[in-house]
Amino acid sequence: MNSHSLSTSPDETPDLNLRGTLIRTLFILVVGLIGVYIVGMSGAHSYSPGEILHYLFKTAPAAVQSTINYYLDKVFYKYDFWAVLASTGFLMIIAVALALLVFEVFYYWKKAGNFRAGMRETSLYRFAFGSKSERTDLYLFLYYALSLDGLIVMALGLLGPFLIFALLVNNVHIGIGQYLPTWASFLLFILVADFLAYWFHRFAHTTSVLWELHKFHHSATSMNLLTAHRNHPFEVAMQYPLRAIPIILVGPSVPEFLVYTAIHHAIILLQHSNFNVSFGWFDRVIVSPRFHLLHHSSKPDHFDRNYAVVFAFWDDLFGTRYKGEDIQPEYGVTANYFNQRGFGFDMWAPFKRFWRGIFRKPIKLG
Question: Which residues are CB-contacts of 116 (< 8 A; sequence separation ≥ 6)?
Fold first, then answer.
């Protein structure tokens, strides 16, 4: 399935096979039931079905209500802009972004041999004088850095994924990492997180309804450092339950999680930059800008390739690495309806198309 060519006309019914949809739904239900049982078993600290049911139907609802109250009180009603600016997370995100933006200035200055000519190639110049696509990248970066995802998602009534994440992290503790040396625990956490990220990313390209959301990320018509955060809020929300899995399985410490976040953030910013350089033999290990820029290409030869987020070897392992000779990408998606009617439309249209696809209705943008 050519992910970049999915849903290419304004009036299109997604390619949803009923039998396939039922199988996927059944699979999700089975996995969900197993997950609920594990949550109950972990929360009740017992294998007894009676105690597990008691926990699920009496203790867990109280925990759900408590979590809802926490999010509403701390995240929604008492969002503190100044506290966010002083937070470790915000400062770390801004520091990494600024370091790479400064590096980019010197890189293009040296490459062009002239400061003014080099500046025209930088992300900073594009944010100030570029297209709507680049301004959208800047808006989404600020949205992410200022922790507005919780506010927006709750305003849309999509608190569910965040609740699932919180309940899983707070109630299920496997913690394989406690039996391993610190370095091995940290490496295992990164591997599990990146393995899941690879498969979610791949499903986002090969499943019609998910592609409607992920298409927003690929609608960028030029690349810059902050394109990394050009993600639809609903798609981000859907990933939250998935993010709980490596935390549950490995149980990283807070410092380990912060180090991982900083490394991950630096890599995804760099790989979305317009450097278009490879890491040579190290491309087999870590995703380089060239590796990922080809993933963003709208050329048919580049479709459905290079899904890896941090570790490039997943694409080798699962046969999705691009091995052709054409390494000059063309950005955007076919029938790109984004970057034309404003930021609000670009947020609403994928959300609308996603739900119409779920209920098998023809997709209409008008």
Answer: none
